[in-house]
Design a protein that fits this description.
Order of helices and strands: EHEHEHEHEHHHHHH
Strand content: 5-15%
Shape: globular
Helix content: 40-55%
Strand order of the largest sheet: 2-1-3-4-5
Radius of gyration: 17 Å
Number of strands: 5
Structural class: alpha/beta
Number of helices: 10
Length: 222
């Protein structure tokens, strides 16, 4: 059973999401939060598999709440998906940097929401890769230069690991990475696992952010 915490200050939004999620036999909503502070408290109490987090909430915003949840060792198994009305939202980019597994637009189709919860609960990340990549590109380009322009993030990586990180940053799956590098899917998966151990990244979404910030992937290029 996948457990979900809903964090949104709109009662009707929470009610709609809850009705949809609770109707599924393998998903259960364990709590609802109306602001970021409450979301963190309830996450620590219930330790849900997935938190659906609105980025714009009173008292404590979704970015801060996401950072608090992803930084808590007791919530290492909890994944945060941020919800937004706007695809290119600076708060969403901040939430991805803070450790969110991905983001969804609030007008997502019901099947899209259910699929997203299941994908993230299974340990995968980078929901809607096309949208996520465009978001990251927009804000890295806005900054005008890679955050890690001196390459310090890459010092501990082998040349092959840098290749894998660049491909992950382009939105490729493990199977696609394996095909591109002519290796087995298991080998590609092992490389990604090593990247997660070596770099300050919780999951694949953060690897994409780091690929852009290190300059391995350049906005507008594939």
């Amino acid at each position: 059973m996948t457990t979900v915490l809903l964090a949104d200050d709109h009662v009707l939004v929470r009610a709609g999401f809850r009705a949809l999620l609770d109707a599924e036999p393998d998903i259960a909503v364990v709590a609802e939060a109306a602001d970021g502070r409450e979301a963190v408290e309830l996450a620590r109490h219930h330790v849900p598999d997935v938190v659906l987090m609105d980025v714009r909430m009173p008292h404590v915003d979704g970015l801060t709440a996401t950072a608090d949840i992803t930084a808590d060792p007791a919530l290492a198994g909890t994944r945060v998906v941020v919800l937004t009305t706007f695809e290119l939202d600076e708060y969403v980019f901040g939430a991805l940097r803070a450790g969110a597994a991905g983001f969804l637009l609030k007008d997502v189709e019901p099947t899209g929401l259910l699929d997203a919860v299941r994908v993230v609960a299974a340990g995968d990340a980078l929901l809607a890769p096309r949208h996520t990549r465009r978001l990251i590109e927009a804000f890295v380009a806005q900054e005008g230069r890679p955050v890690d322009a001196d390459g310090a993030l890459l010092d501990e990586l082998t040349p092959r690991e840098c290749e894998v990180l660049a491909l992950v940053g382009q939105g490729l799956s493990n199977a696609e990475v394996a095909e591109r590098l002519v290796v087995s899917p298991l080998t590609a998966k092992t490389h990604v696992a090593r990247l997660l151990r070596k770099l300050p990244a919780r999951d694949r979404a953060q690897l994409v952010v780091l690929a852009y910030e290190s300059g391995l992937v350049t906005p507008g290029r594939r």
